[in-house]
Design a protein that fits this description.
127 residues; 2 domains; 2 strands
């Protein structure tokens, strides 16, 4: 992995290059340990985001029932997510708009994957 210092015009992603391995290929760590390579970095997901998402889902479950969100079309989840983002951007802090938007996007993404509209893995063309 490249560890040179970035220039002011470079982002961190431009100077930290991922290894040229594919998902599931064997890699060897600095101590000589071998394991399967994965692009998934759960340690990079902020725990507060997972907690807030789980709390929002817990509230929704108590209010609407288990898996009620699956009865709502993907497009409606997107619309509600956008509404929450607009409300947040307009200064409304009367409810947790960002968490609600994230939850709606998560629901929409799940429905898109299940419908075959979105790949179930993250395959960015630049990697």
């Amino acid at each position: 992995m490249t560890t040179k210092k970035p220039t002011k015009k470079q982002s961190r992603l431009e100077w930290v290059k991922p290894p040229k391995l594919r998902e599931g290929e064997t890699e060897t760590n600095a101590q000589g340990g071998k394991h399967s390579f994965t692009l998934a970095r759960y340690d990079a997901v902020p725990p507060v985001v997972l907690r807030l998402l789980a709390q929002c889902n817990g509230f929704g479950l108590r209010k609407y029932g288990l898996h009620n969100w699956k009865k709502i079309p993907l497009e409606e989840h997107i619309g509600h997510a956008m509404n929450h983002l607009v409300e947040w951007s307009a200064g409304d802090r009367s409810e947790p708009h960002l968490v609600n938007a994230l939850t709606r996007v998560a629901f929409a993404l799940t429905l898109a994957v299940e419908a075959g509209l979105q790949a179930p893995t993250y395959d960015h063309p630049e990697v």
